Amino acid sequence: MAWGHFRGRILETFTTLGVPDAIAAGRDPGVNERFLRACASMGLLKRDGSSYTLTELGNTLRADVPGSMRPMALCFLAPSSGMYRAWENLAYSAKTEGDAFVHTMGEHIWDYYTKTNPEEGHQFNLLMSGLSAGVLGAVVEIYALPETGVVVDVGGGVGAMLSAFLKKQPGLRGIVMDIEHTRAAAEEYIASQGLQDRCAFQPGNFFESVPAGGDLYTMKWILHDWNDAQAGAILRTVHAAMPAHAKLALFEAVVPEDDSIANSARMMDINMMVVCGGKERTEEDWRALLDANGFRLDRIVPTPTPNFVIEASKK
Amino acid sequence: MDTQNQAPPPHAVVFDMVFSFFRSQTLSAFAKLKVADAIAEGRDPGVNQRFLKAAASLGLLRSLDGGGFALTPVGELMRTGIPGSMNAFASVVISGGHFKAWENLAYSARTEANAFEHTFGQDVWEYFTKTQPEEGALFNGAMRSMSENMVPVILDAYALPSSGTVVDVGGGVGSMLCAFLKAQPGLRGIVMDLPFTEADGNAYIAAQGLADRCSFVGGSFFESVPAGGDLYTMKFILHDWNDEKSLAILRTIHTAMPAQAKLAIFEGVVPDDDAIAGPARMMDLNMMVMCGGKERTAGEWSALLDAAGFKLTRIVPTATFNSVIEAVKK
Predict the structure, then answer these.
(1) Contacts with A135 from chain B: Cβ below 8 Å
(2) Helix, strand or coil for residue A218?
(3) What share of chain B is helix, strand, coil (3-state, %, to 5)?
(4) Which residues of A touch B50 (CB under 8 A)?
(5) How far, in Å, CA of A255 to CA of A284, rounded?
(6) What mean pLDDT do residues B239-265 have?
(7) Which residues of A are catalytic?
(8) Measuring CA to CA, which residue among B84, B91, B89, B113 is closest to residue B101?
(9) What's the predicted TM-score (pTM) here?
(10) Closest to B321 in 3D by CA, of B294, B287, B295
């Protein structure tokens, strides 16, 4: 387990120094042989005598490949990054259940990314849109979308998920809701998908109000950013806007109840505690949270990813 | 068999590497907060339930029917003050000086120079003895535990002579040598280490009831080691040093060794195949970053010994990453 830290450091250094980009371009990566061999031992490179080639794994760390994992390595593992610094203070969160990011950096992660360090914020956005793209295919495949009506994606960013839904179901219309800051990028994205006639962006704050009158309300990776009190407030805002017949679909992880299973969801839960004071939830946690805020959990649909579709309706 | 299809997709592997950082941080906090001691003694560990559940998902704890947690065998290792404890190791290698020096891995990757000195402006030994003696004590504890765990592994794998004199070069207070002398009642021993260890060494040897068969000699292995031994041993010494310094140490021993004597080095041997080298390659970078030392492959050991006037006779594997590298004078 202790080696995990070293592996993380090697992965980040490999990425930050642009070793995969140099090797792909046939340039000298400018690092020593022992470092390259350690990278090879992690499966990032393949050694043939004194020359090294990228493995499929190493190739994902290049800056210029589709689905690049570079933003992930930089956001979590660069010693200068906010999340790395916060993880260094895990003991604080372990003792208090408080937000180690705020404790360490003196501000909430979203303020840090938008105001203090927008460059890192940009990397984080790249990371999240990459991750979304990765699970989106699975969600679109598995989840039975309605054929008609209006889908409201709450906290939907530029509208990547909603656009994928509308392409799958030509009879659907959509509203992406996110903060005003996202408007220009969202409108551009929606137009680039040719969906401007069926999809609109509406700015807003999900603690205050969300668009009324939808048939399906969706939220992907929103509630795990927030503690139960805050998540409850968001759910109540959605509840107030939802017609009686409408459904709510949350795309989130469901933590197995059995702690003895080596599951990444428990680590992700600690990550949420450390970096933003949020949490990952078990099925029971989801049921209780929804119930306390006027919803009934109808069903949980697994996907081939660690994410599930948690479907609820108004009580 | 198509192994390609069984490998996890590359994106999942990168995820897992990021999670391996989370896991190591969780282990480090678990060790530093002494959660295992509290649980073993039935006290409140003072950490939240979610942290305990995460520790359970790593196999450090198991949840009990009706609430509460118990230590698993892995979790037991995180107790302090028990034989073979790995608490100090988990506390020290993922925090403090190690953590900061590893932040500058890029420096070592580019230059092959010691990132620790680059970071702190002093070498790791000075840092542990003068600047951060508390962390130094923890580090010594970690190394002592590793040594203690290593000795039975060596005794299991390596046949000691039944008589003659063993000289343990850089042997600390003599814990390994005393274990050897207990295993072989016909053996005598000399522990050699820096003079500041002499009082502790003599006290330890006396406490083991071996004062009549074992003595401590103060000195520096760059200058001279006791002459006339039958077996010279060094455990975890040469990996702290680069090839030039290692050669100097080996030459000192060569000068002191009788023609028939043997040299046994207890160290890691890095597999030539990087794909299976795993922790050995991590350890090599750790030595590069922390002290400018290195881990060596069989070929590198052979070349180093050859340059110092020795012939590598055999490498005896053990149940761990460490081996016994045996050599004689050419």
Answers:
(1) none
(2) strand
(3) 50, 15, 30
(4) 97, 269-270, 273, 279
(5) 10
(6) 97
(7) 224
(8) B113
(9) 0.88
(10) B295
Q: Which ranges of A60-149 would DSSP assign to H, the alpha helix?
A: 70-77, 82-88, 90-96, 100-105, 109-111, 118-142
pLDDT tens for each residue of A118-169:
999 988 988 888 778 777 888 888 889 999 999 999 999 889 899 999 999 9
Domain B6-79 carries which CATH code?
1.10.10.10
B209-268 residues touching A, CB cutoff 8 A: none
Domain extents in chain B:
6-79, 149-271+290-329
Contact criterion met (CB < 8 Å) for A5 and B10: no
Residue A99 lies in a domain: no
**Is position A88 within any domain?**
no
My answer on whether A176 and A272 are in the same domain is yes
Residues of chain B with Cβ-Cβ distance to A134 below 8 Å are 11
Task: Report the pLDDT value the prediction gives residue B301, as an integer from 0 to 100.
Answer: 98
Same domain, A48 and A135: no
Average the pLDDT over each of A95-109, B41-55, B272-286 and give the range with the smallest value.
Answer: B272-286
With 80 as the cut, is the pLDDT of residue B8 above it?
A: no
pLDDT of residue B67: 84
B190: part of which helix (H) or strand (E)?
strand B187-193
Does residue A112 form part of some domain?
A: no
Cα distance between residue B156 and residue B207, in whole Å: 24
Q: Distance from B56 to chain A by nearest Cα, in Å?
A: 6
**Structural tokens at position B270:** 């890095």
Instruction: Tell me which architecture the domain covering B149-271+290-329 has in CATH.
Output: 3-Layer(aba) Sandwich (3.40)
On whether both A151 and A57 belong to a single domain, the answer is: no
**Which value does ipTM take for this structure?**
0.88
Domain that holds residue A50: 3-67
Beta-carbon contacts of B202 under 8 Å, excluding residues fewer than 6 positions away, are: B211, B216
- Closest residue in B to A16 (Cα) is B106
Q: Which ranges of A148-227 would DSSP assign to H, the alpha helix?
A: 160-168, 183-192
Q: Residue B326 in contact with residue B315, Cβ under 8 Å?
A: yes
Q: Are residues A58 and A185 in the same domain?
A: no
- pLDDT at B4 > cutoff 60: no
Report how far apart, in Å, the C-alpha atoms of B57 and of each of A129, B27, B53, B54, B169 are: 28, 11, 6, 5, 43
Rounded to whole angstroms, the Cα distance separating B62 from B76 reads 12
Residues A295-311 have a mean pLDDT of 91
Q: Check if the beta carbon of residue A183 is closer than 8 Å to that of residue A201.
A: yes
Is A184 in the same domain as A251?
yes
Q: Which of A19, A45, A67 is the last residue of a domain?
A: A67
Whole-number pLDDT of residue B3? 41
Domain count, chain A: 2
Residue A148: CATH number of its domain: 3.40.50.150
